[in-house]
Design a protein that fits this description.
This protein has 206 residues and is of the alpha+beta class. 23% of the residues lie in helices and 39% in strands. The protein contains four helices and twelve strands; from the N terminus they run ααββββββααββββββ. The chain has helices spanning 3-22, 26-39, 100-106, 108-113; strands at residues 43-51, 54-63, 66-70, 75-78, 83-87, 92-96, 119-123, 131-138, 145-153, 159-166, 172-180, 201-204. A twelve-stranded mixed beta sheet has the order 7-8-9-10-11-1-2-3-4-5-6-12. Strand 7 and strand 8 (131-138) form a beta hairpin. The radius of gyration is 21 Å and the shape is globular. The N and C termini lie far apart (77 Å).
């Protein structure tokens, strides 16, 4: 092998390696993650959330746009249109027709599955070993979010950590301690169980 041919071969291999490494864009990664979540018949996850108001643990179940979140601090039911949020400290249940930002704050997985064309996706700089970090920045104002940081498994593409940074300030970090995309969840799970809270005061803000 001549020296010139050897140099050409090294350059070709270098270019090929570079293309393979950078072939998958951040947008493609987050779309792949979103597609996995959308296709899942039922999602069940346990999480730990940390923010300005402290930390809490809980569970989240989703099917399509519907979800139910349960935690000692708050419980939320969303049937695809109406959201019921129960506060055990005040024994009050608030009823709303939520904005997308409100849904994202209650169900961080919804932020991933949202219209990807509304965000600019870039790679983050603090990805853990064995993971990929994607930063989603809204293209337009009005989403209520300054940015959303999503960490996914390098091979599974399933989310492991979500950081919400709203325009209003304050950061919420959600670490998913477990996640199943094959959970069997009955439709009734997403309906507010009024009979379970007979003494709750209903605050209807619709």
């Amino acid at each position: 092998m001549t020296r010139r041919l050897f140099i050409i071969l090294i350059l070709v291999l270098g270019v090929t390696s570079s293309v393979a490494y950078g072939a998958e864009t951040a947008a493609q990664v987050i779309r792949r993650t979103a597609e996995l979540l959308r296709r899942a018949p039922g999602i069940k996850t346990s999480f730990r959330m940390e923010g300005a108001q402290g930390a809490m643990t809980g569970t989240l179940k989703c099917a399509g746009s519907k979800f139910v979140l349960s935690s000692p601090a708050v419980s939320t039911w969303f049937d695809g249109k109406t959201m019921y949020t129960y506060n055990p400290r005040t024994s009050e249940t608030t009823v709303t027709i939520p904005e997308p930002s409100e849904i994202a704050e209650s169900n961080p997985l919804a932020a991933i599955s949202a219209n990807q064309d509304s965000y600019t996706a870039t790679y983050g700089k603090t990805a853990p070993k064995g993971g990929k970090q994607i930063v989603l920045t809204p293209k337009k104002r009005g989403t209520g979010m300054k940015r959303i940081e999503v960490t996914v498994g390098a091979t599974s593409y399933l989310p492991t950590k979500i950081v919400l940074v709203p325009v209003s300030g304050g950061t919420s970090t959600i670490t998913l301690t477990s996640l199943s995309t094959k959970a069997a969840i009955p439709a009734s799970a997403f309906t507010y169980p009024a009979a379970s809270f007979p003494k709750a005061t209903l605050i209807d803000l619709r």
